[in-house]
Task: structure prediction
Amino acid sequence: MSTGSIMLTVDGESRSLVIDTRTTLLDALRDHLGVTSPKKGCDHGQCGACTVLLDGRRVLACLALAVAHDGAEITTAAGLSPDGEPHPLAQAFIDHDGFQCGYCTPGQICSAAGMLDEAGKGAPSHVTGDLEGPTVLDDEEIRERMSGNLCRCGAYPGIVAAIREVSG
Amino acid sequence: MNPFDYERPADAGAAVATVASRADAAFLGGGTNLVDLMKLGVTGPSLLVDVTGLPLDRIEPLPGGGLRIGATVRNADAAADPEVRRRYPMLARALLAGASGQVRNMATIGGNLLQRTRCVYFQDVTLACNKREPGSGCAALHGYNRHHAILGASERCVAVHPSDMAVALTALDAVVQVQGPDGERAIPIADLYTGDDPERDTALAHGELITAIDLPEPAAAPSAYRKVRDRASYAFALVSVAAVLDVDAGGTVRDARIAFGGLAHRPWRASRAEAALRGAPATGASFRTAADAELAAARPLPGNAFKVPMARSTLAAVLRGLAAREAR
Ligand SMILES: Cc1cc2nc3c(=O)[nH]c(=O)nc-3n(C[C@H](O)[C@H](O)[C@H](O)COP(=O)(O)OP(=O)(O)OC[C@H]3O[C@@H](n4cnc5c(N)ncnc54)[C@H](O)[C@@H]3O)c2cc1C
Ligand code: SF4
Ligand code: FES
Ligand code: FES
Result:
């Protein structure tokens, strides 16, 4: 069996582990480190439930190999709201009914945090009219930029409203 | 998943030598396609050589006015790059039309070019597939083939190439820079993707590493990328069109560069349509005639006859839009 030894900073805490090279970042977090905030929906990159911030950028933990991210800093939705103090996005999801069962929610929140950061840096999206113009996060932009996060409960109107509130 | 060793070399030469030394070793980019296919059992390399630590993550101007995009630049970063947005908007648009924000943050330029087909039979190891299991047959031919090819396919395989980016690069005449065990070479993108042999997606030999994509100086004419898909976002193309249209002051087409996605095993350069357009008036009638010239060779499958009129009207609409922009 091929193994690797890695160190991760997860939600501010330094963790080291020895793992089979086949372990995804998602399984490393959930099954090896007991960090269950990121969820396993499809395990194939299609739903976004496993979204975490990797060195500040939103990625899919189910398609990342843990051994490839030695030294990385991971932030999960739980880490965004430390000590029970809700992150503005988490609070907005509550205020706008941005979830029903809540399974997709940690991924939605990490994705929204990453997305707002990208938009703040001026990154365009598929629906941006002028590629060189300023980024204006209207509902269409929010929907397009969040399209990598599916919600089987269909809480989309609340999710968009929550993100709109925090972005504006 | 098969057990595998993992290595993260610091320079391209070491990466090439390591992959070349083992027949079933593979380069690892963002992993968004490779890791998925390893989970599905479609492929099982015994050694992954991670290229994301290589110094191939820069976007820099080329002498002569072009632009070089390093192979490990993330798709999101290429799309957001100011030079790409300003000078190659068609490429930025194609990148932004692909996958999701998360996938684009992970996916590399090299990996995007070499991603495998999304044919569902290719991804299901219990079914016949000549691409995955040479000689086993093609389950798609008489199966669910709504997403499959209408141009350039054979009875052996009717898969389509899934990349949006590669369609824009084809219309831009990009050149792929490669480093292999025997040295470096430059491959025009038209020669990267090979014929209809299902066992061979590209002209690359084992151990050849994509180091960069070179974009020639862009034409001074408007361009566009348009993607038609089953949902508004986060879906592969049914049909896509990348086009550059150069019309003179008298309303005559000087030049056109067109590539289709979603129609063939490779990004499909529409040379027949381009030839039909050169010298023709920039009118809707010419655009439809040009589309017909390309699509005359279409051989739709039972599930995807709709792609012929869809490709025809998408191309005509894109060209009309470009002509209107040029007339302003
Ligand atoms: C849910 C989902 C939806 C998607 N939707 C779209 C879409 O709409 N449009 C679209 O275009 N794409 C789409 N994609 C595909 C995505 O764009 C590709 O998976 C991605 O671009 C691959 O890049 P990577 O760096 O992750 O490659 P990897 O998965 O790391 O590698 C892919 C292949 O390239 C090889 N490779 C990687 N880098 C190099 C190199 N430098 N030199 C030589 N070989 C190399 C690997 O060995 C492997 O064979 C989607 C993916 C997912 C998961
Ligand atoms: S279309 Fe190609 S990839 Fe799909 S099952 Fe047939 S041979 Fe395999
Ligand atoms: S679990 Fe990772 S995208 Fe669905
Ligand atoms: S809240 Fe149930 S899946 Fe989104």
Q: What stands out?
A: The mean pLDDT of chain B is 97. The interface with chain A takes residues 1, 3-6, 8, 28, 30-32, 35-36, 38-40, 48, 50, 52, 76, 79-80, 82, 85-86, 89, 92-93, 96-97, 99-103, 105-106, 232-234 of chain B (CB under 8 Å).
